[in-house]
Write a structure and sequence with these properties.
single chain, Thiol Ester Dehydrase, Chain A, Ribosomal Protein S5, domain 2, alpha+beta, five-stranded mixed β-sheet
C-alpha cells in the first residue's frame, strides 16, 4: 500500500458553488482508504469515499452522510488512484472540491511534488472471475467489467453531436494515467452551460476550466452574455465547434475526460480491482450504480480471495506415493492425497473427503461434519 510522503495543499473555487476552498491531502495509515474531512464544520466530521454514500450525481459526484457533504469528488480521487495512492485524508474547508482547470493534473502535480511513500502493508487487489454488467436503457449506457490481470479501462462516447462525433479512449495501465488522462478537462455543451447560468449553478466556472461544445447556432447577444458571465471582453466559436476559451490538449480530450471520471467514481468501490472496464456513454450516475454492483460482487466473494486454484487435470507436484516416501503416516492418518503447489512461501495439499472417512462414524452419527 502507498500513502503521501507529506501533507500538501491546493486552493481554488468550487465549480457549482463558487466558494473558495482550501484542500489539504494528508498521509494516512495502511487500510485507511480515502476519507474526506470537513474542517469548517463543528467537530470536523469525516466521510468515507464510498459509493453507498453518494446522494447526487447531477453535476459531478456528491457524498453525503449526516451533516457532512462533499461535492465534485471524482477528479481528486482519480488523481490519487492514478498516482498509486491507497490511503489519504482529504481535508477541505468547504462543501466542494476546487475545480482548478477541470482536470486531475493540478492534483497529480501536487502529489508528485510531495512524493508517494510505500507502507508496510500489502495491497489486496480484488479480481473478478465473471463479467459484471450494468445497463441503463433510458440513457443507453452500457458498462462491463471483464476479468483481467490488471486494471485497464476503455470509454466510448457518442452524444449525437457533429462537433464531438463518436470518440473513444483507452488506458492500458495506471502508469500512463499521469500523461494520457490526468490533463483532460471536463466538458459541457453550450445549451447545458446556458441552463446552468440561468439557474445560477456554475458560479465558480471561469471559462478556462471546461471545454464548451457549441452544438447550435449562437446569436451575438448570447455571445456577449457568455463573455460577461466569464468576465471576458469577447468570446467566439472556433471552426471546430468549440468556444475559443482554450486549446484542446488531445483530439479526443472529452472521451479521455470521461475515462478520468470513471476512474474517480470507481474509486468509490473501496477496493482496488483488477478488471478491464468498458464504459459506453458513461456518466456519474451510471458510474456510481456500476461501482455499487462491483462492490456487492466483491463483498459476496471476498471470502474466496486467496483460495488456491485447483485443476484436477494438472499433474500434482507430489503424488500419494511420493508423499509416503516423505511422511511416516499412513491410512487412516495420512490425511493428504497430493501436493499441488510448493513454493518458499506456501504449500498447498489436497485431501479428498468422502462419506467413508473413519471419523464420520462418531463425528457425528448420522450428521458427518469434517473435524
Amino acid at each position: 500500500q502507498h500513502t503521501l510522503a507529506a501533507a500538501v495543499s491546493i486552493s481554488g473555487t468550487g465549480l457549482h458553488t463558487g466558494i473558495n476552498v482550501d484542500m489539504t491531502l494528508k498521509p494516512a495509515n495502511a487500510g485507511f482508504g480515502f476519507q474526506f474531512q470537513r474542517v469548517d464544520l463543528p467537530g470536523a466530521p469525516t466521510i468515507k469515499a464510498d459509493c453507498d454514500l453518494v446522494t447526487d450525481t447531477s453535476r459531478g459526484t456528491t457524498l453525503e452522510q449526516g451533516a457532512v457533504k462533499v461535492s465534485t469528488v471524482e477528479h481528486v480521487l482519480a488523481a490519487l488512484v492514478g498516482m498509486g495512492v491507497d490511503n489519504c485524508l482529504i481535508e477541505i474547508n468547504g462543501p466542494e472540491i476546487p475545480i482548478i482547470d477541470g482536470s486531475s493534473r493540478p492534483f497529480v502535480d501536487i502529489i508528485e511534488a510531495t512524493g508517494v511513500l510505500e507502507q508496510e502493508a500489502t495491497k489486496a487487489w480484488y479480481t473478478i472471475d465473471t463479467n459484471i454488467s450494468f445497463y441503463d436503457e433510458k440513457k443507453r449506457v452500457e458498462m462491463t467489467a471483464l476479468p483481467a490481470t490488471n486494471y485497464e479501462l476503455t470509454t466510448l462516447i457518442d452524444f449525437n453531436s457533429p462537433v464531438l462525433g463518436t470518440q473513444h479512449a483507452g488506458l492500458k495501465s495506471l502508469k500512463d494515467f499521469n500523461k494520457e488522462i490526468a490533463p483532460c478537462r471536463t466538458f459541457c455543451f453550450l445549451h447545458e452551460l446556458e441552463m446552468l447560468l440561468d439557474n445560477n449553478l456554475i458560479k465558480g466556472g471561469d471559462i478556462n476550466n471546461a471545454i464548451v461544445v457549441v452544438d447550435k447556432p449562437v446569436t451575438p447577444e448570447e455571445m456577449s452574455r457568455l463573455a460577461k458571465a466569464f468576465g471576458r471582453t469577447k468570446v467566439e466559436v472556433k471552426s471546430e465547434g468549440y468556444l475559443n476559451n482554450l486549446e484542446l490538449r488531445f483530439p479526443n480530450e472529452p472521451a479521455r475526460h470521461k475515462l478520468l471520471d470513471v476512474i474517480g467514481d470507481l474509486a468509490l468501490i473501496g477496493y482496488p480491482i483488477k478488471a478491464h472496464i468498458i464504459a459506453n456513454r458513461p456518466g456519474h450516475s451510471s458510474n456510481v450504480e456500476f461501482a455499487k454492483k462491483i462492490k456487492q460482487y466483491i463483498k459476496k466473494n471476498k471470502h474466496t480471495k486467496g483460495i488456491p486454484n485447483y485443476d484436477p487435470n494438472q499433474p500434482p507436484v507430489y503424488t500419494q506415493q511420493q508423499i509416503e516416501k516423505t511422511l511416516p503416516h499412513r491410512y487412516p492418518f495420512l490425511l493428504v492425497d497430493k501436493i499441488i503447489e510448493l513454493t518458499d512461501a506456501q504449500i498447498v495439499g489436497i485431501k479428498n473427503v468422502t462419506f467413508n472417512e473413519f471419523f464420520f462414524q462418531g463425528h457425528f452419527p448420522g450428521n458427518p461434519v469434517m473435524p
